[in-house]
């Protein structure tokens, strides 16, 4: 490889690597800020619910938010036969809806179920898990501006809601675990490749 090409590659690396790392860092910062904002919103919503019911003196040990699924949702952990049956039911229902003249589609509400566990900050005793239903509302405050607000619909039966939340949560955790494992393998592979290339260059100049 000629000297001008080597110099060009070195310059490109010196300029390109910092730019790439900066973009990656900014992306990570945005994701972190978004997660923090969502957690703050959930925490404030739970605290508001507890305040309205007169519950004081406890802290939030943990929380989990699940979007209430529509009628077309198929639980990932169902067996192959059950999933097939569910798909057929959805197909039949949609066909029946099309047969109805002037069928008005219902307004889809943006509903979420917030599960949380309270803790006694002094004794660290954990209370029985609870859950509430919330709705995200985009309230118009101007000609083009909207304000995002959270409306608390009320408390739900925790055990009943967990029948559909637990399988979904498990599927999400499994997906995340697999993604992290794949990321680790890719990072290890990249590190080994970089080390191999570095050794190759070192040996080339050592001759």
Structural overview:
The two termini are 16 Å apart. Helices cover 57% and strands 19% of the residues. The longest helix is centred in the first third of the chain and has 50 residues, at 3-52. Strands 1-2-3-4 form a 4-stranded antiparallel beta sheet. It is extended, with a radius of gyration of 26 Å. It has 207 residues and is α+β, with helices and mostly antiparallel strands. Strand 3 and strand 4 form a beta hairpin. It is built from 3 helices and 4 strands. The chain has helices spanning 3-52, 80-99, 158-206, and strands at 59-67, 111-119, 130-140, 146-156.
**Cα end-to-end separation:** 16 Å
What overall form do the CA principal axes indicate? Answer: extended
Structural class: alpha+beta
Q: Give the total of beta strands.
A: 4
Radius of gyration of CA atoms, rounded to a whole number: 26 Å
**Oligomer category:** single chain
Q: How much helix is in the residues?
A: 55-70%
The number of helical elements comes to 3
Mean pLDDT comes to: 79
- For the largest sheet, list the strands in their spatial order: 1-2-3-4
Q: Largest beta sheet, briefly?
A: 4 strands, antiparallel
- The run of helices and strands is HEHEEEH
β-strand amount: 15-25%
Low-confidence stretches: 30-34
Structural descriptors:
alpha+beta
Structure at a glance:
The protein is of the alpha+beta class. It has helices at about 5-50, 80-100, 160-205; strands spanning about 60-65, 110-120, 130-140, 145-155.
């Amino acid at each position: 490889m000629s000297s001008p090409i080597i110099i060009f590659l070195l310059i490109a690396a010196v300029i390109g690597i910092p730019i790439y790392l900066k973009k990656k860092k900014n992306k990570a910062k945005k994701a972190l800020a978004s997660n923090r904002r969502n957690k703050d919103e959930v925490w404030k919503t739970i605290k508001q619910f507890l305040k309205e019911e007169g519950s004081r003196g406890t802290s939030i040990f943990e929380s989990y938010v699940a979007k209430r699924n529509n009628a077309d949702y198929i639980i990932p952990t169902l067996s192959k036969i059950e999933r097939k049956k569910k798909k057929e039911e959805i197909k039949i229902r949609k066909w029946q809806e099309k047969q109805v003249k002037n069928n008005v589609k219902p307004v889809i509400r943006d509903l979420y179920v917030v599960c949380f566990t309270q803790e006694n900050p002094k004794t660290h005793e954990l209370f029985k898990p609870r859950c509430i239903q919330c709705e995200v509302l985009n309230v118009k405050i101007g000609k083009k501006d909207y304000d995002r607000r959270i409306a608390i619909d009320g408390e739900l039966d925790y055990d009943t809601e967990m029948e559909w939340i637990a399988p979904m949560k498990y599927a999400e955790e499994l997906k995340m675990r697999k993604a992290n494992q794949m990321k680790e393998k890719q990072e290890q592979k990249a590190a080994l490749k970089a080390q191999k290339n570095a050794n190759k260059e070192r040996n080339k100049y050592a001759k």
